[in-house]
Design goal:
Keywords: Membrane, Transmembrane, Transmembrane helix. The chain is mainly α. It is 70% helix and 0% strand.
């Protein structure tokens, strides 16, 4: 448990308050209870989960009143992004009533790839606890994320969530509908949502959707759209999250490049 506690202490920032803090408090409480039942802890924690969550919500409310848009990028750290991923993944995975082993394995593999095995194991302990929590409010959690997280990081969250839905080879309509709702709560507009969705689902016009343009546009407009999207999805925009998140950012950027190359070939320019 000491390693888990150390990871929690080092990974979290603004997520310690509000609805995400409440979800984390529940998950930590579940992990502590499990460890206590196995004799790994000599004493239970002094504060109950309810007291911990109430205190976290109070801290969140105070910070919410003074946060500004300019602070978002500075305050969104790797640990905050990491926990946001875990909570939103749990919400999406539970929407169709069944969490498959392949979906869980995708989350574990993703975290191992990004953070290494030890940190991923701690993250998965937390993730399993969050999966057990029944009253997660999608709207409130997304409002907290939107309040503190910059736009580029929110786009990356959406990219990851589509990866989770495809992990088991079956994408339910309810999962896609929920991700679209999450995008709205995160203040991600419809064009950005369709752009990222097209990176995972390959309709005939996916290249146009990724570049956020219509089929009727001119070649010059395609070039202009490519420059705009390359700037929007450039990995440098996620440097503040740390090197561990750059691979996912590069994958998104590569989709833009491939979409442009496809249209170059189709339109002959």
């Amino acid at each position: 448990m000491s390693g888990f506690a150390s990871w929690i202490g080092g990974a979290l920032g603004w997520t310690l308050g509000g609805p995400i803090g409440a979800a984390i408090g529940f998950a930590i409480g579940a992990a502590v209870d499990k460890a206590t039942s196995k004799g790994l802890l000599l004493e239970p924690p002094k504060r109950t989960g309810q007291q911990r969550n109430k205190r976290a919500d109070s801290v969140y409310d105070k910070r919410r009143r003074r946060v500004s848009s300019a602070q978002k990028q500075a305050e969104t750290k790797s640990g905050d992004f990491e926990v946001s991923l875990l909570v939103l993944s749990a919400i999406v995975m539970k929407v169709d009533g069944e969490v498959s082993d392949s979906e869980k394995n995708y989350v574990r593999a993703y975290f191992v790839k990004m953070y290494g095995k030890e940190r991923a194991n701690h993250a998965f302990q937390l993730f399993n606890g969050i999966l057990k929590k029944e009253d997660l409010s999608t709207r409130e959690i997304c409002q907290q994320i939107q309040l503190y997280m910059d736009h580029s990081s929110r786009l990356q969250l959406l990219h990851y969530l589509f990866g989770v839905t495809k992990a088991d080879g079956h994408v339910s309509e309810s999962e896609v509908e929920l991700i679209e709702k999450i995008a709205g709560y995160l203040y991600i507009n419809a064009r950005d949502y369709e752009s990222i969705k097209a990176m995972f689902y390959d309709p005939v016009d996916s290249a146009y959707k990724i570049l956020e343009i219509d089929k009727s546009v001119s070649i010059n407009e395609i070039k202009k759209a490519y420059r705009k999207m390359a700037k929007k999805y450039h990995p440098d925009k996620l440097q503040h999250l740390g090197e561990e998140h750059m691979k996912g950012a590069k994958e998104k950027f590569q989709h833009v490049q491939k979409a442009y190359e496809k249209l170059q070939k189709e339109r002959g320019f």
